[in-house]
UniProtKB/TrEMBL annotation:
<feature type="region of interest" description="Domain III">
    <location>
        <begin position="176"/>
        <end position="225"/>
    </location>
</feature>
<feature type="domain" description="Helix-hairpin-helix DNA-binding motif class 1">
    <location>
        <begin position="73"/>
        <end position="92"/>
    </location>
</feature>
<comment type="similarity">
    <text>Belongs to the RuvA family.</text>
</comment>
<dbReference type="GO" id="GO:0009379">
    <property type="term" value="C:Holliday junction helicase complex"/>
</dbReference>
<keyword id="KW-0238">DNA-binding</keyword>
<comment type="function">
    <text>The RuvA-RuvB-RuvC complex processes Holliday junction (HJ) DNA during genetic recombination and DNA repair, while the RuvA-RuvB complex plays an important role in the rescue of blocked DNA replication forks via replication fork reversal (RFR). RuvA specifically binds to HJ cruciform DNA, conferring on it an open structure. The RuvB hexamer acts as an ATP-dependent pump, pulling dsDNA into and through the RuvAB complex. HJ branch migration allows RuvC to scan DNA until it finds its consensus sequence, where it cleaves and resolves the cruciform DNA.</text>
</comment>
<dbReference type="GO" id="GO:0005737">
    <property type="term" value="C:cytoplasm"/>
</dbReference>
<dbReference type="InterPro" id="IPR013849">
    <property type="entry name" value="DNA_helicase_Holl-junc_RuvA_I"/>
</dbReference>
<dbReference type="InterPro" id="IPR036267">
    <property type="entry name" value="RuvA_C_sf"/>
</dbReference>
<dbReference type="GO" id="GO:0006310">
    <property type="term" value="P:DNA recombination"/>
</dbReference>
<comment type="subunit">
    <text>Homotetramer. Forms an RuvA(8)-RuvB(12)-Holliday junction (HJ) complex. HJ DNA is sandwiched between 2 RuvA tetramers; dsDNA enters through RuvA and exits via RuvB. An RuvB hexamer assembles on each DNA strand where it exits the tetramer. Each RuvB hexamer is contacted by two RuvA subunits (via domain III) on 2 adjacent RuvB subunits; this complex drives branch migration. In the full resolvosome a probable DNA-RuvA(4)-RuvB(12)-RuvC(2) complex forms which resolves the HJ.</text>
</comment>
<keyword id="KW-0347">Helicase</keyword>
<keyword id="KW-0234">DNA repair</keyword>
<dbReference type="GO" id="GO:0009378">
    <property type="term" value="F:four-way junction helicase activity"/>
</dbReference>
<feature type="domain" description="Helix-hairpin-helix DNA-binding motif class 1">
    <location>
        <begin position="108"/>
        <end position="127"/>
    </location>
</feature>
<keyword id="KW-0963">Cytoplasm</keyword>
<dbReference type="Pfam" id="PF01330">
    <property type="entry name" value="RuvA_N"/>
</dbReference>
Amino acid sequence: MIGKLTGRLDYRAADHVLIDVRGVGYIVYCSDRTMAALPGVGEAMSIYTDMVVREDLMQLYGFLSLVEKEWHRLLCSVQGVGAKVSLAILSALGPDGVSRAIALGDWGAVKAAKGVGPKTAQRIVLDLKDKAPGVMAMGGTVTEALDGPALEVVEPGEPASVPKSVARQVSGTAAASAGALSALANLGYGPSEAASAVAEAAANLPDAGEADLIRAALKLLAPKG
């Protein structure tokens, strides 16, 4: 199983790229957001991948962070959701947006993705709500791209290498949310209530750092009245 590719971006299409890894070209399908964050043609790049193998199909899907890859895996585990629908959801919401929507039970946000009906959106939220805290706790930090092209297969939990500019984009909100979630867990809050509070705080304060998210989440969790 190919878990990560590191090489040179050879070609860009609307929904996929061709990555040259030591003379072998790999076609990798990505969400719109991931496509927009990738470097230019001819530049070095590294990306997490997930391979789908069926009797009539073998395709690679690419992700900038473990959070995005994990949401893709979980979304595809829901009945009626395939890779195309998963990428549509990640394109519309991004991994942080998916985390917030699932944690808050906001199936309306999921329904906004192309090709997702209300029943499917509700099923996604219902099936994955308990998984949101674990995914949010993964954060989204990635590291700088390697200098030379190479093919790597990595185990889950090991950081992928992408350009610094992309690393900053991916790591900001996800890392702050993960830190806030960890802090609330240390204070004794349950995973689901902590995830919902952090998700709501992040939605209200999209540029907030970890400390601000913790304060905002604690206010939401404070007894009313």
